[in-house]
Amino acid sequence: MCRSRGPYVLAVPINLLALLSAQRRRLAEQAEEIADAIGLIDTALSRIDRGEPLDAATFCSLIRDGEKLMTDQTQAWQDVVDQYYTPEEQAEWQEHMADAPEFSQEAYQAQWHALSARIEAALPLEPDSDAALAFVREWFALLEPFSRNATPAMWKGTTRMYDDMARWEGKVDPGFSKPVWDFIMTATPAALNRGEDIGPMPAWFARPAGQEKR
Fold first, then answer.
1. Residue with the larger pLDDT of the pair 95 and 141
2. What Pfam families does the database record attribute to this sequence (predicted)?
3. Is residue 120 part of a domain?
Protein backbone atom coordinates (compact mmCIF):
# COMPACT_ATOMS: atom_id res chain seq x y z
CA MET A 1 0.00 0.00 0.00
CA CYS A 2 1.36 3.41 -0.94
CA ARG A 3 1.77 5.92 1.86
CA SER A 4 0.76 9.54 1.41
CA ARG A 5 3.58 12.02 1.87
CA GLY A 6 1.40 15.09 2.28
CA PRO A 7 -1.03 17.16 0.24
CA TYR A 8 1.42 17.66 -2.62
CA VAL A 9 2.05 13.99 -3.35
CA LEU A 10 -0.04 14.10 -6.54
CA ALA A 11 1.69 17.20 -7.86
CA VAL A 12 4.61 15.14 -9.19
CA PRO A 13 3.44 12.59 -11.76
CA ILE A 14 5.16 9.22 -11.63
CA ASN A 15 5.86 7.42 -14.89
CA LEU A 16 5.32 3.90 -13.61
CA LEU A 17 5.99 2.37 -17.02
CA ALA A 18 9.43 3.97 -17.24
CA LEU A 19 10.20 3.30 -13.58
CA LEU A 20 9.26 -0.37 -13.68
CA SER A 21 10.88 -0.90 -17.07
CA ALA A 22 14.16 0.53 -15.80
CA GLN A 23 14.00 -1.63 -12.68
CA ARG A 24 13.25 -4.71 -14.77
CA ARG A 25 16.23 -4.02 -17.04
CA ARG A 26 18.52 -3.64 -14.05
CA LEU A 27 17.26 -6.86 -12.46
CA ALA A 28 17.56 -8.70 -15.78
CA GLU A 29 21.17 -7.56 -16.10
CA GLN A 30 21.91 -8.75 -12.57
CA ALA A 31 20.16 -12.07 -13.24
CA GLU A 32 22.28 -12.58 -16.35
CA GLU A 33 25.47 -11.85 -14.43
CA ILE A 34 24.45 -14.26 -11.69
CA ALA A 35 23.54 -16.95 -14.23
CA ASP A 36 26.94 -16.55 -15.90
CA ALA A 37 28.69 -16.81 -12.55
CA ILE A 38 26.71 -19.93 -11.61
CA GLY A 39 27.55 -21.49 -14.98
CA LEU A 40 31.23 -20.81 -14.43
CA ILE A 41 31.09 -22.31 -10.93
CA ASP A 42 29.27 -25.39 -12.24
CA THR A 43 31.98 -25.85 -14.86
CA ALA A 44 34.67 -25.52 -12.22
CA LEU A 45 32.90 -28.00 -9.93
CA SER A 46 32.57 -30.47 -12.78
CA ARG A 47 36.28 -30.24 -13.52
CA ILE A 48 37.18 -30.66 -9.88
CA ASP A 49 34.84 -33.66 -9.62
CA ARG A 50 36.62 -35.28 -12.58
CA GLY A 51 39.99 -34.58 -11.00
CA GLU A 52 40.92 -32.01 -13.63
CA PRO A 53 42.92 -28.92 -12.65
CA LEU A 54 41.40 -25.48 -13.09
CA ASP A 55 43.13 -23.35 -15.68
CA ALA A 56 44.30 -19.88 -14.69
CA ALA A 57 41.66 -18.12 -16.81
CA THR A 58 38.78 -19.97 -15.16
CA PHE A 59 40.21 -19.42 -11.70
CA CYS A 60 40.65 -15.69 -12.30
CA SER A 61 37.13 -15.43 -13.73
CA LEU A 62 35.69 -17.05 -10.62
CA ILE A 63 37.46 -14.55 -8.39
CA ARG A 64 36.56 -11.57 -10.57
CA ASP A 65 32.88 -12.49 -10.87
CA GLY A 66 32.58 -13.16 -7.16
CA GLU A 67 34.16 -9.83 -6.30
CA LYS A 68 31.91 -7.98 -8.74
CA LEU A 69 28.73 -9.50 -7.33
CA MET A 70 29.83 -8.67 -3.80
CA THR A 71 30.72 -5.11 -4.83
CA ASP A 72 27.37 -4.61 -6.56
CA GLN A 73 25.46 -5.82 -3.50
CA THR A 74 27.55 -3.66 -1.17
CA GLN A 75 26.89 -0.58 -3.28
CA ALA A 76 23.19 -1.40 -3.49
CA TRP A 77 23.01 -1.63 0.31
CA GLN A 78 24.88 1.65 0.63
CA ASP A 79 22.33 3.32 -1.65
CA VAL A 80 19.50 2.07 0.58
CA VAL A 81 21.22 3.00 3.84
CA ASP A 82 21.96 6.50 2.55
CA GLN A 83 18.21 7.10 2.28
CA TYR A 84 17.67 6.55 5.99
CA TYR A 85 20.91 7.48 7.76
CA THR A 86 23.08 10.57 7.61
CA PRO A 87 26.87 10.11 7.29
CA GLU A 88 27.13 10.97 10.99
CA GLU A 89 24.59 8.30 11.91
CA GLN A 90 26.42 5.75 9.77
CA ALA A 91 29.66 6.61 11.55
CA GLU A 92 27.88 6.03 14.86
CA TRP A 93 26.78 2.64 13.56
CA GLN A 94 30.36 1.66 12.75
CA GLU A 95 31.55 2.84 16.14
CA HIS A 96 28.97 0.87 18.10
CA MET A 97 29.31 -2.27 15.99
CA ALA A 98 33.11 -2.27 16.10
CA ASP A 99 33.15 -4.65 19.07
CA ALA A 100 30.72 -7.12 17.51
CA PRO A 101 32.31 -10.57 17.13
CA GLU A 102 33.40 -11.59 13.65
CA PHE A 103 31.30 -14.25 11.95
CA SER A 104 30.54 -15.56 8.49
CA GLN A 105 28.15 -13.15 6.79
CA GLU A 106 27.17 -15.85 4.29
CA ALA A 107 26.25 -18.30 7.04
CA TYR A 108 24.41 -15.57 8.95
CA GLN A 109 22.44 -14.59 5.86
CA ALA A 110 21.58 -18.23 5.23
CA GLN A 111 20.11 -18.45 8.74
CA TRP A 112 17.89 -15.44 8.04
CA HIS A 113 16.75 -16.96 4.75
CA ALA A 114 15.91 -20.25 6.45
CA LEU A 115 13.95 -18.56 9.25
CA SER A 116 12.13 -16.29 6.81
CA ALA A 117 11.13 -19.24 4.64
CA ARG A 118 9.71 -21.14 7.62
CA ILE A 119 7.77 -18.11 8.85
CA GLU A 120 6.38 -17.33 5.41
CA ALA A 121 5.32 -20.96 4.96
CA ALA A 122 3.46 -20.81 8.29
CA LEU A 123 1.59 -17.57 7.54
CA PRO A 124 -1.05 -16.55 8.32
CA LEU A 125 -0.45 -16.99 12.04
CA GLU A 126 -2.23 -15.53 15.02
CA PRO A 127 0.29 -13.07 16.50
CA ASP A 128 -0.41 -14.22 20.05
CA SER A 129 -0.07 -17.94 19.29
CA ASP A 130 2.65 -20.23 20.65
CA ALA A 131 3.97 -20.73 17.12
CA ALA A 132 4.26 -16.97 16.65
CA LEU A 133 6.13 -16.63 19.95
CA ALA A 134 8.58 -19.34 18.90
CA PHE A 135 9.32 -17.48 15.68
CA VAL A 136 9.75 -14.18 17.54
CA ARG A 137 12.26 -15.80 19.88
CA GLU A 138 14.21 -17.24 16.95
CA TRP A 139 14.18 -13.82 15.29
CA PHE A 140 15.64 -12.01 18.29
CA ALA A 141 18.17 -14.76 18.88
CA LEU A 142 19.46 -14.18 15.34
CA LEU A 143 19.32 -10.42 15.85
CA GLU A 144 21.47 -10.59 18.99
CA PRO A 145 24.75 -9.39 17.36
CA PHE A 146 22.95 -6.15 16.47
CA SER A 147 20.72 -5.73 19.53
CA ARG A 148 23.70 -6.19 21.87
CA ASN A 149 25.28 -3.00 20.49
CA ALA A 150 22.33 -0.98 19.17
CA THR A 151 21.49 2.43 20.57
CA PRO A 152 17.87 3.63 20.70
CA ALA A 153 18.53 5.77 17.61
CA MET A 154 20.00 2.81 15.71
CA TRP A 155 17.05 0.63 16.71
CA LYS A 156 14.50 3.23 15.65
CA GLY A 157 16.27 3.97 12.37
CA THR A 158 16.53 0.31 11.42
CA THR A 159 12.87 -0.26 12.20
CA ARG A 160 11.95 2.73 10.02
CA MET A 161 14.08 1.42 7.16
CA TYR A 162 12.50 -2.04 7.20
CA ASP A 163 9.01 -0.62 7.63
CA ASP A 164 9.71 1.10 4.31
CA MET A 165 10.96 -2.10 2.67
CA ALA A 166 8.43 -1.92 -0.15
CA ARG A 167 10.42 1.00 -1.60
CA TRP A 168 13.67 -0.94 -1.97
CA GLU A 169 12.78 -4.64 -1.82
CA GLY A 170 14.37 -6.40 -4.79
CA LYS A 171 17.37 -4.09 -4.88
CA VAL A 172 19.11 -5.73 -1.91
CA ASP A 173 18.57 -8.92 0.05
CA PRO A 174 17.81 -8.36 3.75
CA GLY A 175 17.33 -12.08 4.31
CA PHE A 176 13.57 -11.90 4.84
CA SER A 177 10.47 -10.69 3.03
CA LYS A 178 8.13 -7.80 3.79
CA PRO A 179 5.29 -10.14 4.91
CA VAL A 180 7.69 -11.77 7.37
CA TRP A 181 8.81 -8.39 8.69
CA ASP A 182 5.20 -7.25 9.09
CA PHE A 183 4.39 -10.45 10.98
CA ILE A 184 7.31 -9.95 13.38
CA MET A 185 6.25 -6.34 13.94
CA THR A 186 2.81 -7.59 14.97
CA ALA A 187 3.82 -10.69 16.92
CA THR A 188 6.58 -8.98 18.93
CA PRO A 189 4.38 -6.42 20.74
CA ALA A 190 1.76 -9.14 21.24
CA ALA A 191 4.36 -11.25 23.06
CA LEU A 192 5.68 -8.30 25.07
CA ASN A 193 2.18 -7.30 26.13
CA ARG A 194 1.71 -10.81 27.52
CA GLY A 195 4.97 -10.48 29.45
CA GLU A 196 6.75 -13.15 27.40
CA ASP A 197 10.52 -13.46 27.22
CA ILE A 198 11.30 -12.87 23.54
CA GLY A 199 15.06 -13.30 23.77
CA PRO A 200 18.10 -11.00 23.74
CA MET A 201 17.19 -7.31 23.79
CA PRO A 202 19.22 -4.11 24.24
CA ALA A 203 19.96 -3.20 27.85
CA TRP A 204 18.03 0.06 27.46
CA PHE A 205 14.91 -1.63 26.06
CA ALA A 206 11.84 -0.95 28.20
CA ARG A 207 9.05 -3.50 28.37
CA PRO A 208 5.43 -2.29 28.33
CA ALA A 209 4.38 -0.82 31.67
CA GLY A 210 3.13 -3.41 34.13
CA GLN A 211 4.50 -6.36 32.15
CA GLU A 212 7.03 -8.61 33.86
CA LYS A 213 9.15 -10.99 31.80
CA ARG A 214 7.97 -14.58 32.05
1. 141
2. TipAS
3. yes
